[in-house]
Each structure stands twice: as structure tokens, then as C-alpha cells.
Batch of 2 targets.
Target 1
Amino acid sequence: MYKFPEGFLWGGAVAANQCEGAYREDGKGLSIQDVMPKGIRGKRTESPTEDNMKLVGIDFYHRYKEDIKLFAEMGFKVFRTSIAWSRIFPNGDEKEPNEKGLAFYDDLFDECHKYGMEPLVTISHYETPLYLAEHYNGWVNREMIGFYERYVRTIFTRYKNKVKYWLTFNEINSVLHAPFMSGGINTPKENLSEQDLYQAVHHELVASALATKIGHEINPEAKIGCMILSMPTYPLTPSPDDMIEVMKEEHMNYFFGDVHVRGRYPGYMKRYFKEHNIKIHFEPEDEEILKNTVDFVSFSYYMSCCATADKEKQKKGNGNLLGGVKNPTLKESAWGWQIDPKGLRYVLNMFYDRYQKPLFIVENGLGAVDTLIVDENGNKTVEDDYRIQYLNDHLVQVGEALLDGVEIMGYTTWGCIDLVSASTAELKKRYGFIYVDRNDDGSGTLERYRKKSFYWYKDVISSNGKTL
Ligand code: BGP
């Protein structure tokens, strides 16, 4: 039996653009997601098109009360969502915020508190205002820091008494792989120079540190974290050359955590920049700003991958955003994401050894095709034993990491209610404990149904992990 700490923050996670819908309501501007009907692999469109599932999402904008009630029924202590930047600043560069957008999140956070649930808010989750992408080229442009600063000041001030836990950027390292989705960078990836890409990274890192500073000034009690896409890398063979590849791959991800926790650029990146002829432009204040380090480190975990020095085998796998070489010892999901519960224990230990900061697992889960059935009592449900198995196996490893002495604040499963996938923009890739009746052709009643995993998670939470 595993012992989870008292006050462990059990819950679930979503992002505004993948569930809210209402893409043009109450003054919202367009976000980059409104022109990404096919996710990261497809081309962006000029303007929103009807086949874009995110325009309606799961209609969370209108149904959040019903959904939060269901989360409360499972016993959630925390609910992670994001604020859609373009609801607050429709174009992104306005001087004054949109009051209706602010009011929506006031109501949403009040609703969470009604059930004793803490909101955990991602400030920017793959939803840069489209205008900022098209007119400024997103984070390549230093002016973004000022727009982001105005946005964070507005929301930190407004929700000072409602939100304690904040994340500055979702999976900040993913900008290296999906520059439009993650960084609002309009230059097509194939034309984007490494110089511009890493300058954009620098701007985001400065903006993140600035947000941490401002957040603490406005509310000294606030807990502000970074959020990293974690994907532990194993050597494909025991060869030292493969191990060096592992080190290089891991550096590319640790870079982001290192700056957030240590407040400065690591030596290995300086070497990388030198060897790739990249010159990061620092304004005189940047070094000081970067010293505003985070209170905790959060991350998503879905899978691990392998690295090899063998050029032939280096071809990228069809994995998560980061790709990677497949591990021949692991099974995979229907979308080719390799399933590796022990990798979660490993990554928790690695982060904790390196940073000695509290950790928060803010995404983990299985995307699967679910079949809605009618049970013996006449209720619609999904018998998702595969999801229960996946989550149980991962939580057992969280229990192991706790025994290893790792300090863990909480765990929020990804897509606690079915929502639109970030990578493929489909709804049939479902993660939820709650089934949403909506299909990729736009049909469906949007009704919600409790899956078998709903009751499983409820027991896990009420026993504080003892049922695992
Ligand atoms: C992460 C993103 C989420 C989420 C999740 C699952 O990379 O932070 O937004 O969607 O992955 O990915 P997908 O939706 O592609 O299955």
C-alpha cells in the first residue's frame, strides 16, 4: 500500500482551447487554435473552418457548472485549466482587457471553490491570440514580453483571491518542436532559423520569470511553477555513444527547467549556441529577471523514448510532440505513444535530484477510442478498464517515487473529461473519466456520461491512494 501525503492535490486537467468552444462569444478574439483544424500535423487555415472541432469543443463554456459538479463528485481537490488569452485580450496588444472574458473566469473559479476545489491555472496553453502570431510573429518578437506582462498583471490582480497555483507556459519546451502551436510563431517551421527559434525561447523564458516576479509581488502566497513536457530518454543500446545521445536529448529538455529553477543559462546550452552560431540577444535587465525562480516544477508525462547514435535508426518515431526512437520493449497506445509507467518514477526522481523543488504531475493519461454502452441498469457508460489499468500503473509508480523521498504536490490526469486532442484535433482520442457525446463529424448531443474509470478514480481519491 502506498502512502500519499495529507493534502495531496488529486484532480484533473484541461485546456481552454480544447474544451471551451464558444470561440467567438463575449468578445473573444481568435486564437491560433481557431485556424488549426488538423492539429499540429495539418496545415493552418486562413480563417476558422467548420471542420475545426475546437470551435465548439465540448461546450465547456456553457456547461462548466455541470462538469465541475461531476469533478466534485469524484472528489477533485484541484482542477487545472487555462485562461484563453484571447478572451482577455482579443488581439493581444490592446491596452484594456475584455471584461466579459474576465467575468467568465471569475464565475468558473467561484464554481470550483464552491466544492472546495483549488484552480490550477495555465496562463498560456497553446492559445496565443492569432493577431499576435500574424502581426508580430509570436515569441520571435520581443514585444511579446510586454503583451504577456500586461496579460499576467491583469489576471494575477483580478484573481488574486481565487487562484493560488499558476503555471506560466504549458510544455514550454514544445516550442522547439511545434513553433506555431506552442509559440505563435507564424514563420513556417521549415523556414524558421535556429537563431529565431532560440531567441523566441529566450523571450518566453524571460516572460516566464517576469510573470513569477509579478505574481509574487501581487500575491506573496501564490505558488508559481514552470511546466515541462517530460519524456525520459533511454539509450537504445548500452553503447557509450548512445548514452551521449541520451545526454544531449535530455539537455534540450532540462535546459528549460534549469533556467526556471537555477535562474541562468546552463553551460551545455552556451556550447550548443556557439557550435550552431546562435547569438541570443539579452537586454541588460534579462539576467536579473531570470533570477526570479519558480516555486515548483510541473510536467506532463505520457511516454518515454530511446536515443541512438546510429544515424540510420535516428529517424523520428511517430510519438508525442518530441518524436524519438521507439523502445522495442514497450507496448503502445492506438496513437503509437509508448506506455511506460516506470518512466514516471524515473522522471520524478530525476527532476527531484536535480532541482530539490516540489513536483506536480499536471498531465498523464491514455488517449483511447471508447465505446458507449448501456449497462444493466439502463445507464450509458464506457467500460474503460484499459484506462484504469494505465492510470493505476502510473500512480503505483508515483507511490514508489514517494517512497524514494520525492516531494510531490499533486497529480492531475489529462483530459479528465473528453476533449479535443492537441496533436490530432480529434475527439475520438478520449482521455476522460466522463464521456462526452460528440463525434468528429460534429454530430452528438454533448451529453455527459460517467465511465467506469469515474468510480475508480473517486475511490482512489477518497482513500488517498490506498486503493491502488
Ligand atoms: C500535451 C498537451 C495537452 C494535451 C496532451 C495530450 O502535449 O499539453 O494539451 O492535449 O498532450 O495530447 P493529445 O491531445 O495530442 O493526445
Target 2
Amino acid sequence: RTVYVNGEYVAENDAKISVFDRGFLMADGVYEVTSVIDGKILDFEGHVLRLERSLAELGMPMPMPADDLLAIHRELVSLNAVDEGAVYLQITRGAPADRDFAFPPEGTPQTVVLFTQSKPGLAGDAAASKGIKVISIPDIRWGRRDIKTVQLLYPSMGKMMAKAAGVDDAWMVEDGMVTEGTSNNAYIVRGNTIITRHLGNEILSGITRAAVLRFAREAQMTVEERSFSIEEAQTADEAFITSATTFVMPVTEIDGVQIGSGSPGPLALRLREIYVDESRKAAV
Ligand code: PMP
């Protein structure tokens, strides 16, 4: 695989980052993951806008114009012949001369890394026709989950807790209400109404979430942006998650309780189809 590191395209084994990089030492960095279908980037604009916001919230500049970032995405997809998969992008506050809690002086070059991941079958229905099962776990992450930082230890632990419980993922709960999945936004469906937590510092504003809510409204579904509990979710007609890499993925079980019929719900599957079709058409 060819990867991008600080202005250069290099073989992954030749890529180098300083041991003093603040991404490595302090999780002082932000990231984006953008899906690829038919060798094209999905919703680049949404991802780059969120990236700019994440950087701004942490007092970091954009290291280069958005167009240049898009060009790197495209070049890597082409160099690595990715048909279906993802592009991972990470920007850190760079590598000061020594480890220090204080931010490095202004002008310290940021670290910019991008790489691709091939995932044949990504846009297909194999995984979605089965759906996933989740458990609930307490949400003990920090208070600025709206910033897409590389501080992913607790979500990783959550995935491992899910694995240990024999399921696929975990929904996190704070003050009795679901915040989001470990790496996705969480939804339930009652009748024709789609319910998902309102935006705020407590969750990441998903790019897929924004698109799916728009498609849901266009398809005459009702959207309620409010928090819900695990108990409410367990009595819902359907449940699902969204993320850039899973699109819309039905949830069939929460904490051992079957949701609806126990099979992927019709609204979730319909939204997935609309999302994949529309994203494919708009991909760049
Ligand atoms: N919430 C969290 C915590 C996430 O890590 C992700 C995936 N990056 C999402 C939500 C979904 O965001 P998106 O649709 O932009 O991938």
C-alpha cells in the first residue's frame, strides 16, 4: 500500500512519524474516515467541513486547502486501486522538540497522514441483511465528543466488551439515555418516526446522520431529534446505526432483547438503499 505522510507518497513500510508526535503521545489530533464506492469519495464536503470544525475547536489550522486534501484522497485511491473501501485522514499538532503538556510554538508543522483501506463488498447488502446485535455500556468518555479526536481508547474497550458478550457493538448510555454507538450514531423507529439523539457536545455529529435524516424527511418519514433510553429502544419497532463505513446498519438485538421481529427493519433497509444510491450518484 502507498500512504501519504507530510507531503510524500511512500510505501507503508517506509512511512515515518516522530516519537514526539503529539498524536502519539497525547492523542492531540483529529481524524476523518471517508468511504469509497466505485473508486470515488463519498460526501467529501461534509467530512472536510467537520474536519475544519474539529481543528478549529482545538486551535489548529487547516494544514492545506480542502481541494488539496481531496486531491490526496483521489491520488491514494488511484495508486492503491481502491474500488470499495475507505480513506483515513489524521492531522495532529505535530512533533515538538520534546514532550511537553503545553502546545508547541505556533508554526510547528502539523503531521498529516492519509491511507486507504480496501473493503470489497462494502456497498453490498450482505452485512445489512443480517443486522447487528448490541449491548449497552456506560458512556465514560470526555465531554467534547463533538470533536473527532483520535482519543479512541474507550470506544475500543467498548468494542471489546461487545465482543466478550458475543455481540457486535455497544451503545453508550449517560444519565439513563443513549448517547451513540462506539463508532456510529444510534436510532430507533416507532411507526413512521425515526428517533435519534439531538446534536450537542455529547455525541459526534455524523456526516451519515445528516444525510440519512435528510433522506428520511424527503421520503416523508418523521424525524425526532431527542434522546431515548435503552428501555424505549427495546420496545421500538426497529433500531439501526449509521456511520461513514457501515452506512445504515440494522440493529436486531439490544442487551439480549429482540427488536421488533428480530430481523432488520424495513425502514432501516429502505434508508440504507436510498443512502447508498444517492451517495454513489453524488460521489466525487
Ligand atoms: N459517533 C462516533 C463516536 C463515531 O466515531 C462515528 C464514526 N466516525 C460516528 C458517530 C458516525 O459519524 P460518520 O457518519 O461521520 O461516520
